[in-house]
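Continuing the series of single-chain predictions for the mutant panel. This is the parent chain; the variants come on the following pages.
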Amino acid sequence: MPSESLSRGEQTRTQIVQTAHDLFIQQGYHGTSLRQIATEAGIALGGVYNHFNSKEEIFEDVFQEYHPYHQVIPLLLNTKGNTIEERVRNAANQMVEIINKRPDFLNLMFIEVVEFKSIHARDLFTHILPQTILVADHIIGGENNHLRNIPPAMLIRSFLGLFFTYYLTEILFANVDSNDFRENTMDYIVDVYLHGILDA
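Parent structure:
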């Protein structure tokens, strides 16, 4: 949304959220004060309280505003492929591409999980669940006869698990000097997701 179309109050709120996001990423949640957010945003501390009741309320806005689902869901709803397998592979690679452009997201997730016990993430997922079900329906693409009887919500959960498995292990093994941990990682993870580990 262009800044010209925002009211002055909306511009101030946006500036607070953007500033808080940057500070939370650089310093962590507890390392950032409301006064510092106000100073960095160029407004008085009272101006922050005109828009937010607490630092947690600011974090909630940051978490929702900067969550990659805004980009991920529309992309997944347009995932191409002639088979479920092709669509799953393409969807997984598209998610990785988006998240690789968002190194801040993991920091936000750690703050959310450690500091807030995932309360905002649960609320957000409840809000976007209908959209994720549409994603599952799109990826299945009417080929239900190829799938075990698994509820769509569980397909979404397991797909997210696939993605986070890749994402977290990429970080853990970033400095491991072995091609066995690095080459074609997502291809192997998708293979395990789709076919298991048994050569049946």
